[in-house]
Amino acid sequence: MAEIEFVRDPNSKDRPVEAVLVFAADKCGPGAYNFPLYTVFCDPMHNSGLLLNPKMHLGFTLTIIDMDHKSKDGDRVIQLQVPERIWDATCLLQNPDRFAIEAIHSRYKPEEQIVSVSATRLHNIAGKYTGKDDPVAIVRTQGLFPAPEEIVEPYLLGHFVTGDCRGSHVMPLMPVAINTPVAGPFCLPLVSCLGFSIDAEGLFTREHVDLFGNVAWDATRIKVQQKADEWRRQGFVGATMASHAELAYTGIVETLAALEKEFILRREQTVAAKA
User: What is the distance between the alpha carbons of residues 68 and 124, in angstroms, rounded to a whole number?
Assistant: First the structure.
């Protein structure tokens, strides 16, 4: 679940209307949004609005959650202000299987939350693998927030995420139209994006925009499929498979535990042979 609460004020100079993007991903975890959100809110090479919009130039507050933390006392989170602590943020977000951006707030108006991500791991709730987390995200846009085209730009890359078939592979994320079936080889991780507007009376408009359904994304989809095809040639070896931390909820753990009993120290083997 992702949720943002805000005050709807038709007289606001900053937010006379609301424009909201809703992302829904499949076959991946919440960390799949780390790269796009970092790129949008921290990198002027991709988002020129950080340079051109004085209200965004002040920066943002990132709330990052430790998804490995399991406690009845609550979630373990850290808040970092960027750009001042951008390198600290990158040290955490480099590991998208453990740390994820959960929320982003404006520093121009600290009460305004811009982003909410469903950064909850299903295996932490169930205690076993029950499928990937299929995370959703809400991103408010326009005005003192990034523009829609700035928010979707990072998805041109088709960045690699953990998930895919059995949730155990590393594969590129493909932006697709809403309701696209997962039918490709190895079930490519997918992400869709719908855009909504809320008028001055606080009502959702009837129309919505399927941002990744546009033909402008066809070339990206072909590129992502080509990346996936080449990547899968490596099979199960090394970086193409999920880390052991992610595989800890799969059957490979039982196999490794059984093999552990068969390992011997070579020195012991030599002594036994001499005897």
Answer: 8
Classify residue 248: in a domain, yes or no. Answer: no
Asked, as a colleague might, if the bond just before 83 is cis with ω within 30 of 0, I would say yes
Stated pTM of the model: 0.86
- Write out pLDDT tens, residues 121-161: 655 555 555 555 789 999 999 989 999 999 999 999 999 99
pLDDT tens for 7-17 read: 888 788 878 78
DSSP-derived secondary structure for the chain: ---------TT-SS-SSEEEEEEEEESB-GGGGHHHHHHHHH-TTT-THHHH-HHHHT-EEEEEEETT---TT---EEEEEETTTHHHHHHHHT-TTTEEEEEEEESSSTT-EEEEE----HHHHHSS--S----EEEEEESTTS--HHHHHGGGGS--EEEESGGG-EEEEPEE--TT----STT---EEEEEEEEE-TTSPBPS--EEGGGSGGGHHHHHHHHHHHHHHHTTTTSGGGBPPHHHHTTSTHHHHHHHHHTT---HHHHHHHHH-
Cβ-proximal residues to 79 (8 Å cutoff; 6+ apart), any chain: 61, 62, 63, 64
Residues 6+ apart with CB under 8 A from 137: 2, 22, 23, 25, 33, 37, 115, 116, 117, 118
Is residue 251 a part of any domain in this protein?
Answer: no
CA of residue 34 relative to chain centroid, distance:
5
> Residue 260: inside a domain, yes or no?
no
| Burial of 66 from C-beta contacts in 10 A (0-12 / 13-18 / 19+) | middle
Expressed as residue numbers, the domain containing 228 is 18-243
Is residue 257 a part of any domain in this protein? no
State how many domains the chain has: 1
